[in-house]
Specification:
The complex is a heterodimer.
Chain A lengths: L1 E3 L13 E5 L2 E8 L7 H12 L10 E5 L7 E10 L5 H5 L1 E9 L7 E10 L12 E7 L3 E4 L5 E6 L4 E8 L5 E6 L11 E4 L7 E2 L12 E4 L3 E5 L7 E5 L9 E7 L4 E15 L2 E10 L8 E8 L5 E11 L1 E5 L5 E4 L2 E4 L8 E5 L15 E3 L4 E11 L11 H8 L1 E10 L2
Antiparallel strand pairs in A: 1-4, 2-3, 3-6, 4-5, 5-6, 7-12, 7-29, 8-11, 9-12, 10-11, 13-14, 13-15, 15-16, 16-17, 17-18, 18-19, 18-23, 19-20, 20-21, 21-22, 22-28, 23-27, 24-25, 25-26, 26-28
Chain B lengths: L2 E4 L6 E4 L6 H4 L14 E5 L10 H6 L3 E10 L2 E6 L18 E6 L1 H8 L5 E5 L6 E5 L4 H12 L2 E4 L4 E5 L1 H5 L5 E4 L4 E2 L4 E3 L2 E7 L6 E5 L4 E5 L16 E5 L8 H11 L4 E9 L4 H4 L5 E5 L12 E3 L2 E3 L2 E10 L6 E5 L5 E3 L11 E6 L7 H7 L5
Parallel strand pairs in B: 7-10, 11-13, 11-19, 15-17
Antiparallel strand pairs in B: 1-22, 2-5, 3-4, 3-23, 4-5, 6-8, 9-10, 12-13, 14-18, 15-16, 18-25, 19-22, 20-21, 22-25, 23-24
Classes of the chains: A mainly beta, B alpha+beta.
């Protein structure tokens, strides 16, 4: 089997029947064949994954892991990829595919650079400089991972495996981190987008091209997973990885309180960014008042290693936007939002946060809701979880989750010369 | 050839018509010894408008670009420059005043109002504090306006309707950007238009000065930069002095001219060239003079003092200014010729449309167009 970036991870990709090296150029080809492990729907999904290798602005360098020939393992730059879809291809003929890659310098162990650019999130909730928490995560198998002085490292478990999480309080909002990682571990804890490609089960998406599946997607990084609610359209279901299992999903709903009404459904899903260090999806929304009121879209952003989902809701018309627990859960007001008062039945506490001025002197603490005090066409919010609840320690504690949200950071991962 | 617009310059344009364009059509814009069609105007609209159904004034009001018709290299080739040309051509030709224009304590508005040529309409002049004791004669309006604006710290602008506005740059172009240069992907967001392209950063200190010496009509003065961060070979701060010798600089104004030069022209120059702009109709979304956001953290083009929500990310872009724009005349646009009597000839059916992408220059003007731009637009770029 072979893994080309994310292709081959959730659907087995057979080793290419041809691998040709011409200096630093590699060309390979194979066939996606139907068998017991690969339904026609899986074949369509895998075809999409291979096509996503080409002209992918979010992953210009990919990992290659070949089970039969580990000597080929390394990092490459795709230059082309194709996969024919012809008559009877989904039957016995199979889908022939090919890809051409450039072997990057030092392909077996290149140096990665993470360019972190950040600053205190502008806010109206008296969250002052010096209290934001800078965060950055790499797979635990990474070696020579270096950030900047003044921070700390901890292990963070994910569904894929462990990460190393760097964090710093009130400092190092922007820095360049450097690290090396084995190809096999390159996607541990990576942000990812899955969609029901071809109408089948959720499959990893490569690149930004994806079918419009407003109710068939999942945004995850192995620490937190977000899916649309099927039972209650327009709501979000969020689960977190405790270290051994996923939490029961908590459901959240969004509403434009005095004008738009509730988000009643998602009409479209597109991908804004799909890189291992950060993924962003965009959902076009329907609101209770309908198109007469105007348009609204919801962007959901997730970074590698983070437990807080960043949401950005933008609308044509202004409204006092709110997000709340769909099932009431008593909460306590904190700077910039609220946190569940007590541990839930699984021993964790959820967190809602926003840089907007919130209603009154405290949000609705019975329901577990934060609402903007004034109407706006922009609502930025975070949904997090304190794993371990009141017994948790830094940086898993709710205040560090909140403070990491208030450190607005972008991360760009590239390969650089050593 | 694309339309080129550049802040503070006349720009340029060229329209190519298909070889089968009727003689009767090109006769309506022939530059020859018989017909007075030279100095007519080309009008380009973002989409075709039936000129028979609207007035000339309406058509002009909808124009994305209006240029002065100056040359006809071949029957089906029309070229010229932008409306700024009426302020004065590059070779010093224009409506030159033949009597002195002088004010002992002229305000910015007074100077601009007086210097505006009759071929253009005076628009809005936003006041800038101060007075200028100066006199000029037999100079183009553009040269004089450049001097006035440098002195007061303002800019001039000629709209596509031939209106001259002047004032501080924010008064002319606003301050809030409407475009974000976001490397890799374009798109139209609720509040910003994203432009995708390939940025090329260009920075140098070729014009950097540490001190300016001004020799005027009746005196001289010098100004030294407050902080000099650069060092020479021996570790001492660089000493780079520039002499300005200009008899039109009136006594008592030398120090102000020197300081103005240090602030506006003696700096490290930084610009970003954006080639291969593929997204949307660039010339409709951005005009030279307006601010833009530029976000490319992998190249260090960031400014954490700025925070902009864009495409689901909280970005920290750099604020830079569009200095120049070159865009192709593409199918779907409307192209018209307006002669000196206001008659409109619709050229749209006969235009040899261009393809390709646009080029945007951000920040300071590039010292020289990059190789990529030259390859794309040839020696037409100077």
């Amino acid at each position: 089997m072979i893994k080309l970036a994310r292709a081959g991870v959730d659907i087995q990709l057979d080793t290419p029947t041809r691998w040709r090296d011409t200096g630093s150029k590699v060309s390979m080809s194979g066939t996606i064949t139907p068998d017991a492990t690969r339904t026609p729907v899986d074949m369509i999904a895998q075809r999409a994954q291979i096509l996503g290798l080409q002209n992918n602005p979010d992953e210009r360098v990919i990992r290659v892991v070949c089970d039969e020939l580990p000597a080929l393992d390394g990092f490459y730059e795709p230059t082309s990829a194709d996969c024919d879809l012809s008559d009877n291809a989904l039957g016995s003929a199979g889908l022939p595919w090919s890809a051409e890659l450039n072997r990057i310098a030092g392909s077996a162990a290149p140096q990665f650079q993470s360019v972190i650019t950040g600053a205190l999130l502008s806010n109206s909730v008296a969250f002052f400089p010096g209290f934001e928490v800078s965060q950055w995560a790499v797979p635990a198998a990474a070696w020579e991972a270096s950030a900047v002085a003044g921070g700390s490292w901890v292990d963070r478990p994910t569904r894929d495996g462990p990460l190393k999480l760097y964090y710093a309080l009130g400092a190092n909002q922007s820095f360049n981190g450097h690290w090396f990682v084995p190809p096999a571990a390159a996607y541990i804890g990576a942000a990812r987008i899955e969609a029901m490609l071809g109408g089948g089960p959720l499959r990893l998406v490569m690149g930004r091209e994806v079918e419009n599946q407003p109710y068939g997607w999942r945004l995850s990084n192995g620490s937190v997973a977000i899916t649309p609610s099927i039972v209650n359209p327009g709501r979000l279901e969020v689960s977190w990885w405790t270290g051994t299992t996923w939490t029961t999903p908590k459901v959240f709903d969004l509403t434009g309180n005095t004008t738009a009404g509730a988000i009643t459904g998602f009409t479209g899903m597109t991908i804004q960014r799909n890189s291992p260090e950060m993924c962003v999806i965009r959902l076009t929304c329907s609101v209770a008042l309908g198109m007469v009121w105007g348009r609204a879209h919801l962007d959901l952003q997730l970074r590698r290693g983070f437990r807080t989902v960043l949401g950005i809701l933008e609308s044509d018309q202004a409204s006092d936007w709110q997000i709340q627990r769909s099932t009431a859960e008593a909460s306590t007001a904190v700077t910039g939002g609220l946190v569940a008062t007590l541990n839930d039945s699984e021993g964790n506490r959820f967190l809602l946060t926003s840089p907007s001025t919130l209603t009154g002197t405290a949000p609705d603490l019975t329901q577990g809701r934060i609402r903007q005090a004034a109407t706006s066409t922009l609502f930025v919010f975070g949904v997090g979880m304190e794993i371990g609840g009141t017994a948790s320690a830094i940086p898993d504690r709710w205040d560090y989750q909140r403070s990491a949200f208030f450190c607005a950071q972008d991360e760009r991962q590239t390969v650089v010369g050593r | 050839m694309p339309v080129k617009q550049q802040i503070g310059k006349t720009g340029a344009w060229q329209i190519n018509l298909i070889p089968t364009t009727p003689l009767e059509l090109t006769a309506r814009m022939a530059i020859d010894s018989v017909n007075p069609y030279a100095f007519g105007h080309i009008v380009i609209t973002p989409s075709w408008i039936d000129a028979r159904l609207v007035s000339t004034a309406t058509l002009m009001s909808l124009a994305r670009f209006v240029g002065v018709y100056l040359a006809q290299p071949a029957r089906t080739e029309l070229t010229g420059e932008g409306l700024e040309w009426w302020l004065g051509s590059g070779n010093g030709t224009g409506d030159l005043p033949e009597v002195p224009i002088a004010f002992g304590a002229g305000t910015f508005a007074t100077w601009v109002t007086t210097l505006c040529p009759a071929a253009l309409t005076l628009g809005t002049i936003t006041a800038i504090a101060g007075n200028l004791n100066w006199a000029t004669i037999r100079n183009t309006a553009r040269n004089d306006l450049d001097y006035i604006c440098r002195y007061f710290g303002g800019e001039w602008q000629v709209t596509q309707q031939g209106v001259v506005n002047a004032g501080p740059a924010p008064a002319l172009y606003g301050t809030t950007p409407t475009c974000m240069v976001h490397i890799g992907d374009g798109g139209r967001e609720p509040r910003l238009v994203g432009l995708a392209g390939t940025p090329e950063r260009d920075t140098d200190v070729l014009d950097y000065v540490s001190r300016v010496l001004v020799i005027g009509a009746a005196g001289n003065a010098g100004q030294t930069r407050a902080t000099i961060p650069y060092k020479n070979l021996l570790g001492a701060p660089v000493s780079l002095k520039r002499r300005i010798d200009d008899g039109s600089i009136l006594a008592g104004t030398e120090a102000g001219v020197a300081l103005g030069f240090i602030i506006r022209e003696g700096q490290r120059r930084e610009s970003v060239g954006l080639t291969d702009v593929r997204s949307y109709d660039v010339s409709g979304d951005i005009i030279p003079g307006r601010n833009m956001w530029l976000w490319n953290p992998s190249e260090g083009v960031v400014d954490t003092a700025n925070e902009i929500v864009f495409r689901g990310e909280i970005t920290h872009p750099q604020l830079l200014r569009c200095m120049a724009l070159a865009w192709p005349i593409t199918r779907g646009m409307g192209v018209y010729f307006r002669d000196g009597d206001g008659r409109i000839t619709d050229l749209t059916p006969w235009v040899a449309w261009e393809s390709g992408s646009a080029a945007v220059e951000i920040g300071a003007p590039t010292r020289r167009w990059t190789e990529a731009l030259r390859t794309q637009y040839g020696t037409w770029l100077t």
